[in-house]
Amino acid sequence: MKKSLELSCQEGLVSRAVSNSESIGRFEAESKKLPSSKYKGVVPQPNGRWGAQLYDKHQRVWLGTFDEEEQAAHAYDIAALRFRGNNAITNFKLSLDANKDVVELYFLNSHSKDEIVDMLRKHSYACELEQTRYNISACTGTRKTTKSNGEFEDTPESDPFDVARKHLFEKVVTPSDVGKLNRMVIPKQHAEKYFPLPIESAAKGVLLNLEDDARKVWRFRYCYWSSSQSYVLTKGWTRFVKEKNLKAGDRVSFQRSGEPANKLFIGCRPQKGSSLVGMSDQENSSKSVEATRLIRLFGVNILKAPANHVL
Could you report the per-residue pLDDT of 30-76, keeping only the tens digit for each? Predict the structure, then answer.
């Protein structure tokens, strides 16, 4: 009896060891089955996505993971240009010497390697680059071009803000829009007409760039919430509410410019009796100082009188 028990235990241990070795071998075989990429600096991930990486001074620099293989390849190219300059070997032919792309070269050179890597990991590189394009061309009225010696110079161009805008729609902000939900609901009829979402991007959402009257570009995450069956502006909306001092009852409007710019604009105006919306903090402060003067006694506010009132 004792011998048979020992034999059965040994057989169990052996079978477990065999099964473990088989599972390890199966895992190694599956990992070897991952397709290699045809692009430089791109590596496949077990979850089906693609990673981007490069080596700098024998140290691996991870650039993030991407849904598409080409996206990872582009991320590698951007990092390679920043780390190794214009002579870097890239996956795609980039014409950064052309005037139309010189802003990107200027952008790369004006940021550190760590900053560029951080943008690539957060997938914010394209938005940051677009913001720089706006700042250079719109705010200064010039565009960056290159001289024969490779230096940058400013070339005047027409103001892209001097374009006709088509009014799309206007919405009265509700208490929930400016509350703690950190989102604004876009009416369904307007969302589907002016901001249609591809089915594959509905849940994840897309980034919308909208310019205000002060020529500042606001970035909002725009997506569809299936739980409430509503189209919403989420990420970036809370900051807009705070800076514009939006309150329930105020109105937010949306416009679009014509071709070829095809830009989106956002504006806001207060309801009657509301505080000024859309002004800078400095302007609001000066307005309030001109309107009233606060009288304090022993640290207590006791009277608000007109600023031009003589005591």
Answer: 445 667 889 999 999 999 899 999 999 999 999 999 999 999 999 99
Residue type, 54: L
Given a contact cutoff of 8 angstroms between Cβ atoms, the answer to whether 37 and 69 are in contact is yes
State both tokens at 160: 């892209």
Nearest CA-CA partner of 235 in 221, 251, 252? 221
- b/e code 171-189 from CB counts within 10 Å (16+ = b): bebeeebbeeeebbbbeee
3-state secondary structure the chain: CHHHHHHHHHHHHHHHHHHHHHHHHHHHHHHHHCCCCCCCCEEECCCCCEEEEEEECCEEEEEEEECCHHHHHHHHHHHHHHHHCCCCCCCCCCCCCCHHHHHHHHHHHCCCHHHHHHHHHHCCHHHHHHHHHHHHHHHCCEEEEECCCCCEEEEECCCCCCCCEEEEEEEECCCCCCCCCCCEEECHHHHHHHCCCCHHHCCCCEEEEEECCCCCEEEEEEEEECCCCEEEECCCHHHHHHHHCCCCCCEEEEEEECCCCCCEEEEEECCCCCCCCCCCHHHHHHHHHHHEEEEEECCEEEEEEECCCCC
**Structure pTM?**
0.44
Mean pLDDT of the chain, nearest integer: 75
